[in-house]
Design brief:
Blueprint lengths: L8 E2 L5 E2 L3 E3 L20 E3 L16 E4 L2 E4 L8 H12 L6 E5 L4 H11 L7 E5 L15 H12 L6 E5 L6 H10 L4 E4 L3 E4 L1 E2 L4 E2 L5 E5 L4 H14 L4 E4 L5 H9 L4 E4 L2 H4 L3 H16 L8 H5 L6
Parallel strand pairs: 3-4, 3-16, 4-7, 7-8, 8-9, 9-10, 10-15, 15-16
Antiparallel strand pairs: 1-2, 5-6, 6-14, 11-14, 12-13
Helix pairs in contact: 2-3, 3-4, 4-5, 6-8
This protein binds flavin mononucleotide.
Flavin mononucleotide binds next to strand 6.
Length: about 300
């Protein structure tokens, strides 16, 4: 069935994916630990947030379950960019699957140094900037202030030929303003969204469950919120929007595509149902087939912006 269909997606600057289904940063490591996931169904892997130097992350508890998703405060545990470039990237060259490195830091210079180190390294298809990190200079997250988000984006843009995707935080008053700022600063695409800040309390011990008190909420609980953000963004900016947040089924992914997303990322579901990515890919293909549409651009609501007036 799927052979006649074209599920490719163009995310700009030569980043062409064979499928609109990606796995989200932090839920798939560096691609080595999830043999259950059918790599053939994936458009790309987005790695764990990578910093200039190795980081150990936060002390336990770093994860808490909630009735409809999970809270995490992993704290950017990663081996550092040099290890990624020297040890992981050479392996990725043999995968026939683009790997996008998620980049994090606590100063603009750190993001720039990571981007510089990865520029021209075989096996790396793009960068995704996690702008939900606090800037040590003022304690403010890069992603909550349009000027700061733009400054970070253009600084990275200036030192790499790789496609630059900016991952937006939903913990802001006006996500569209941030997206417009990073688009103007040279981002090739945005992904929306990162996790929502939340917390959980152990009433027996009368203490927060997470060692860092607050953490990021992900999973089905945030899907309607993420969908709304994507719908707003798709109308406001011209660069592609990658939808992420609570997607677990083909129907969820189709909602994002109809809201205007060019592609989707699956995150938390990879922990409980690693086969979901393959199912979502096949479900999107079946939906196109059922309607006689040859490619994703044929989705009529998406291309005509009909939802904008709904
Ligand atoms: C355990 C965990 C670790 C994460 N680490 C990162 C990270 O390093 N960088 C990043 O940009 N997003 C990170 N995220 C956010 C996810 O990539 C995604 O944006 C979010 O979880 C919403 O999608 P989901 O509901 O499908 O999980 C992490 C999420 C989880 C659950």
């Amino acid at each position: 069935m799927a052979e006649r269909l074209d599920l490719t997606v163009d995310l700009g600057r030569g980043l062409r994916l064979r499928s609109p289904v990606l796995v989200a940063s932090g839920t798939f490591g560096y691609g080595f630990d999830a043999p259950q996931v059918d790599r053939a169904a994936l458009g790309a892997i987005v790695t764990k947030g990578t910093t200039l130097r190795a980081r150990e992350g936060n002390a336990p508890n770093r994860i808490a379950e909630t009735p409809s998703g999970m809270l995490n405060a992993i704290g950017l545990q990663n081996p550092g960019v040099d290890h990624v470039a020297r040890v992981y990237a050479p392996v990725w060259t043999s995968w026939n699957l683009p790997v996008i490195v998620n980049v994090a830091g606590d100063a603009i210079d750190e993001y720039v140094a990571v981007a510089r180190r990865l520029d021209g390294v075989a096996g790396i298809a793009g960068l995704e900037l996690n702008i939900s990190c606090p800037n040590v200079a003022d304690g403010l997250q890069f992603g909550v202030e349009p000027d700061l988000a733009a400054e970070l984006t253009s600084a990275v843009r200036a030192v790499t030929r790789l496609p630059v995707i900016v991952k937006l935080t939903p913990n802001v008053t006006d996500i569209v303003a941030i997206a417009r700022a990073v688009e103007d600063a040279g981002a090739d695409a945005v992904s929306a969204i990162n996790t929502y800040v939340g917390m959980a309390i152990d009433v027996r011990r009368r203490r927060p469950v997470l060692s860092r008190v607050s953490g990021g909420l992900s999973g089905p609980a945030i899907k309607p919120l993420a969908l709304h953000a994507v719908w707003q963004l798709a109308q406001a900016i011209r660069i592609p929007v990658i939808g992420v947040g609570g997607i677990t089924t083909p129907g969820d992914a189709l909602e994002f595509l109809l809201a205007g997303a060019a592609a989707v990322q699956l995150g938390t579901v990879n922990y409980t149902r690693p086969e979901a990515a393959g199912e979502v890919h096949d479900g999107i293909a079946a939906y196109l087939e059922e309607h006689g549409w040859p490619d994703l651009g044929s989705l009529p609501i998406r291309s005509a912006g009909v939802l904008a007036n709904a």
